[in-house]
Design brief:
The protein has helices spanning 18-30, 42-54, 56-59, 78-87, 107-116, 128-140, and strands at residues 10-14, 35-39, 66-70, 98-101, 145-147, 152-154. Strand 5 and strand 6 (152-154) form a beta hairpin. The longest helix is centred in the N-terminal third of the chain and has 13 residues, at 18-30. It is globular, with a radius of gyration of 17 Å. With 182 residues, it is α/β, with parallel strands linked by helices.
Length: 182
C-alpha cells in the first residue's frame, strides 16, 4: 500500500458508544487524518451536515470528506443517516464516502447497506491496518456513482467482470447524463 497524506481530510464519526467513538477518533488521527469530528447519533450528524452546508464557518468545518457511522444507534441509526446523505435534497454531498462500521457484519446487513449506497463496511473490531486499507481503497480505487430508479450510490461491482454479452438493456431515451467531463 502506498503512503498517503490524509492531513487535509475532515472526517465525521457517528458513534453512540463513547469508548468506540474515542477509539475510532484516535485510530483516525494515528493514520494521519487532519480533523475528526464526533457526534453520538445520526440525528446529530444530520444537524451538523446541515450546518456545514448553510454556514461552514459557524460549523467549524468547510466540508465533510468521509463519514464513519455505526449501524445501530438511537434515535437515528446509520442506515437512516445513509439514506439521508444519499437521497435527501438537503444533503450537502450525496457523493461523500460513507463507511458503516458494525459488530453485526452478517450477509443480510451488509446487503442492506450496499443497497442503500454504502461505500465500505468494515466489521468491528477493526484494526489500524484495516482502516488504512479502507481509506487507501477510497484513494486508489474510487468507484463511479450509479443512479437508477431504485439505487443511488457507488457502483457495487468492485472488479471488472468479463461479460461477453451485455444483459442490461437501456435505450437512449432512458439515459440521463449526470456529468460529462468533456
Amino acid at each position: 500500500m502506498a503512503n498517503y497524506n490524509f492531513s487535509m481530510y475532515n472526517v465525521l464519526v457517528v458513534e453512540d458508544n463513547r469508548y468506540m467513538r474515542s477509539m475510532l477518533r484516535t485510530l483516525l488521527y494515528a493514520l494521519g487524518i487532519g480533523n475528526v469530528v464526533t457526534v453520538a447519533h445520526g440525528g446529530e450528524a444530520i444537524e451538523l451536515l446541515r450546518k456545514v452546508k448553510e454556514s461552514p464557518q459557524a460549523a467549524g468545518l468547510s466540508s465533510v470528506d468521509i463519514i464513519f457511522s455505526n449501524w445501530q444507534m438511537e434515535p437515528v441509526d446509520g442506515t437512516m443517516l445513509l439514506k439521508w446523505v444519499r437521497r435527501h435534497k438537503e444533503s450537502p454531498d450525496r457523493f461523500v464516502p460513507f463507511i458503516i462500521v458494525s459488530g453485526y457484519a452478517d450477509y443480510q446487513r451488509v446487503s442492506v447497506c450496499r443497497d442503500l449506497g454504502v461505500t465500505e463496511f468494515p466489521a468491528k473490531p477493526y484494526s489500524e491496518d484495516g482502516l488504512l486499507g479502507r481509506l487507501t481503497s477510497l484513494v486508489e480505487r474510487p468507484r463511479q456513482f450509479v443512479l437508477t430508479e431504485g439505487y443511488f450510490g457507488p457502483d457495487r461491482r468492485r472488479k471488472p467482470s468479463p461479460v461477453k454479452t451485455e444483459r442490461r438493456v437501456i435505450t437512449e431515451a432512458e439515459m440521463e447524463i449526470i456529468y460529462d467531463d468533456r
